[in-house]
Hints:
2 copies of one chain form a homodimer. Chain A is mainly α. The first copy, chain A, has a domain at 41-164: Winged helix-like DNA-binding domain superfamily/Winged helix DNA-binding domain (Arc Repressor Mutant, subunit A, Orthogonal Bundle), CATH 1.10.10.10. Chain A has 7 helices and 2 strands, in the order ααααββααα. In chain A, strands 1-2 form a two-stranded antiparallel ribbon. The longest helix of chain A has 21 residues, at 106-126. Chain A is globular, with a radius of gyration of 21 Å. At the A-B interface, α1, α2, α4, α5 and α6 of A face α1, α2, α4, α5 and α6 of B. Chain B binds a DNA duplex through α4.
Amino acid sequence: MTHAPDQPDRPDPRDDDLGWMLGVVFRGYVRAAEHVLTDFPGGPRGYHLLTAASSGPPRNQGALAEELGIDRTVLTYLIDDLEGPGFVVRRADPADRRNRLVDVTAAGRAAWEQRRSTLRQVEAHLLGALTSTESATLRGLLQRVACSIQAADPLRDLCSVVTQVRPEPPGGAGRDAPSRTRRRS
Amino acid sequence: MTHAPDQPDRPDPRDDDLGWMLGVVFRGYVRAAEHVLTDFPGGPRGYHLLTAASSGPPRNQGALAEELGIDRTVLTYLIDDLEGPGFVVRRADPADRRNRLVDVTAAGRAAWEQRRSTLRQVEAHLLGALTSTESATLRGLLQRVACSIQAADPLRDLCSVVTQVRPEPPGGAGRDAPSRTRRRS
DNA sequence: TATTGTTATACTCTATAACTATA
DNA sequence: TATAGTTATAGAGTATAACAATA
């Protein structure tokens, strides 16, 4: 990619396309995780829910949904899938009985740890182009970015950035086509 | 996150969860791109299609779809959206008239460049937790990983890794629940 | 016959909204 | 009244399959 600019003074646009890189790597990860975790209750998301629920103190479903980046309505079904085989249990929060705290059971922890090692190896394969030092660097940087994004709700922030930065309404460029056009019903 | 392990000998599981980090960063990027590119023909994907089509020699739709990680059937509609305002044109490949080569027009290039600078600033904001040196490092590493994934069709490779590595069929763990259970439809 | 692109259709996934219970 | 969780439903997005053109 880097090796085939179409002109010396016009470098390959993909070279600094963060979206392209992230998309490729993310989709690669998702495919890999699906292979390892198809038969896991709830699939890859079930596994990641266990990861989140195992981290730190028990939280309610809203907090977990936000951390996992999914809607609270889908989290309901996801937790159902994990509660079936007894990997998690819902427990009413004594402080506020509207909240349901999600606890990971011993069985859930065991199932999680079993898949974890496999997933780690697949992850390593995904990053196979890097040395182990580079791989650690990448993980560290991603971790910091992810935490910063998660910490400050980025939506509000990004809105202000966009309105500050956005150029004049694109005259003759991307006019009014809001999205995708599905021709003739 | 890193600062709250739940026990000294049981570090926070999220610390090495590549999937979580990639998910958060990717979703953050998607949200940011949507803000900048909602009114762009085809949305963020239309923009990325222009990026891909501007890179290197003209390719047919199949190659573009693979590079963008989308199905060729949705690419048809996406190209329609960009051909409407005249950002790209389809041209029959003289060498094999089954192929349609996608050319970016001057108007398409102009629209792309206009949004590009805004998008770059939003990207920089997304990586705001990093110094500019770290940001460049991250981009470089991601670029290499993305290229390696894109180069070698990872699916076949990962399959072999999984079958090599997978432990005995999880007895009593993730039994047969294949996916999500939508109770009482 | 195989492949590229197109179109239509079916399916999955997600989100909106209404409902229950707690506060 | 407001919030957490649940449920049903509608909508968006995606993939499967049939078709047309070309090889």
